[in-house]
Amino acid sequence: MSESDERSKIKIEEAKDKVIGAIAETMDLYGVTPSAANLYATMYFKDQMTLDEMRTDLEMSKPSMSTSVRKLQEIEMVKKTFTRGSRKHTYVAEKNFFRSFMVFYCHMWEREVKMNMEAIEEAQEDLKDVIKDSTSTLEVVEQAKKYFDQLEESKTYYHWLSDLVASIRSGKIFEFLPKDPQD
Amino acid sequence: MSESDERSKIKIEEAKDKVIGAIAETMDLYGVTPSAANLYATMYFKDQMTLDEMRTDLEMSKPSMSTSVRKLQEIEMVKKTFTRGSRKHTYVAEKNFFRSFMVFYCHMWEREVKMNMEAIEEAQEDLKDVIKDSTSTLEVVEQAKKYFDQLEESKTYYHWLSDLVASIRSGKIFEFLPKDPQD
DNA sequence: AAGTTTGTTAAAAATTTATTTAATCTTTCA
DNA sequence: TGAAAGATTAAATAAATTTTTAACAAACTT
Questions:
Q1: A149 and A121 part of one domain
Q2: Quick one: closest CA in A to B140, which residue?
Q3: What confidence tens digit (pLDDT) does each residue in A22-52 have?
Q4: Does residue A35 reach within 7 angstroms of strand D, measured from its CB?
Q5: Same domain for B102 and B91
Q6: Whole-prediction pTM value?
Q7: pLDDT tens digit string along B51-102?
Q8: Same domain, yes or no: B124 and B170
Q9: How far is it, in rounded angstroms, from Cα B104 to Cα B31?
Q10: Do the domain assignments include residue A182?
Q11: Can you give the residue range of the structural domain that contains B111?
C-alpha cells in the first residue's frame, strides 16, 4: 500500500471520528450512556456489526456492548438482523434520523401526557369532592378551586403535545415543515 | 379547626401530591435530577419560595436546594424574583408549560444542530480532499464518496430540525397546531 | 452426545453523580 | 463600618450508575 494511500485512509478515519464525536456528545438528549452513544455513532458508519466487532472497535467488554446495544434497540436506534451463515448476531444502526426522532420523542411525550393527565384527572376528582363538600370552609373551597383551575389550564398543553405527537406519527407535520424545503 | 375541614385540607394535599409525583417522574426528559424535578413540581403549586422554605418542604440541605434551583434556572423553569422587605431570595416556577417546552427543546435542538453540522462540514472538507487527491486509489475514493453522501443526506434532517426550532420560536407552529383546537 | 462458540445474567469493582457538612463570600441593615 | 443573615463554593461523604470479570445457558458443529 502506498504512502499517500495510507494517509488518505487516515484522513477518512479522522473525518468519521469528528462526526462520531459530535453525534455521541449530543446523544445525552436521548438519555443513553456515553458508551451507548459512542456505539451508536460508530455503527452509524457501518453496514452492520457483531458484538465482537463492537468490542474490538470500542475496546470494551462484551457484556458492556450487549447492554448498550440492548438499550439502543429499546429506543429503536439499532435493529437486529439475520445474517445467514454467521452464528453471530448482527446489528444495524437506524440511519434515518427522522425515524429516530419520531420514535424517541413520540414515545417520551406520550408517556408524559399519559402519566400527567392521569394524575391530573384523579387530582381534579379529589378537588371536586372538596369543593362540593358543604361542610368545607370558604377558605378551603377557594384553595381547591384555585388548584383545580390551574390543572384545567395545564391540560391545554398536554392536548397540544398529544396533537404534536399525532401529527409527527401521521407525517402531517411534514406538510407544514417539509423535509426538503423548496428554497 | 373542624374535623372535616382538616380532612379537606389533607385531601387537597393528596391531590397536589399526585400531580407532583407525575410531573417529577416525567421530568427526566428534561435531564434534571430527581430532586430538582421534585423541587420544580413542588414549586409548581406555590407562588414563590425561598431556599429555606424549599429545604423545609423537601427535607433536604440548603446547598442541595441551591444547586437544584440553579439547574432549574439554567433551563428557565425557575426565575429569581425580587421581594421587597425580605432579605431572602425568592424564586418562582415557570407555570406555562408551553414556554418550558420551547425554551428547553429549542435550546437542546439548536445545540444538536450546531455541534453536528460543524462536525459534518469539517468532515466533508476532509473527504473532499481525499476525493480530489489524484494519488488516491479508486477504492479509497469510493469510500470517501460514500461517507460524503451519507453526511450530505443527513443534513436534510438537521435543516428540518432547525426549521422546527424556528417555527416554535416564532410561534408559527401554533398556526398549524393550535394551542386551543376548535373542537 | 460432547465440545465450542456466542450471548446473557449475576456479582463485584470502579467511576460518576448527587448530597451534605463545613467554610467562605456577599449582601443588607444598624 | 461592622455585625448578622443568607447564599454559594469546596471538600468529603454517600448513593447511584456504569463497567467489568466471572459464571451460566443456549445453540450450533462435528
A1: yes
A2: A9
A3: 999 999 999 999 999 999 999 999 999 999 9
A4: yes
A5: no
A6: 0.93
A7: 999 999 999 999 999 999 999 999 999 999 977 777 899 999 999 999 999 9
A8: yes
A9: 10
A10: no
A11: 98-176
Number of domains in chain B: 2
The contacts of residue A53 (CB under 8 Å, 6+ apart) are none
Positions on chain D within 7 A of a protein C-beta = 5-10, 17-22, 27-29
Query: Does B21 share its domain with B91?
Result: yes
Is A47 in the same domain as A109?
A: no
Name residue A79's beta-bridge partners.
A92
Q: Is the CB of A58 under 7 A from strand D?
A: no
Question: Residue A72 belongs to a domain with what CATH number?
Answer: 1.10.10.10
A 52-111 near B (Cβ less than 8 A): 95, 97-98, 101, 108, 111
φ/ψ of A81, rounded to 5, equals: -125, 155
The integer distance in angstroms from the CA atom of B68 to the C1' atom of C17 is 13
Which set of grid coordinates corresponds to residue B179?
394551542
* B165 CA – D4 C1', rounded, Å: 48
Q: Work out the number of other CB atoms within 10 angstroms of the CB of residue B48.
A: 15
Residue of chain B minimizing CA distance to A99? B157
- How far, in Å, is the CA of A32 from the C1' of nucleotide D11? 30
Say yes or no for a CB contact (<8 Å) between B15 and A95. Answer: no
Minimum mean pLDDT range among B22-36, B47-61, B77-91, B151-165? B77-91
Residue B1's pLDDT is what? 57
A56 domain residue, yes or no: yes
Residue ranges of chain A whose pLDDT lies below 50 = none
DSSP string, A69-83: HHHHHHTTSEEEE--
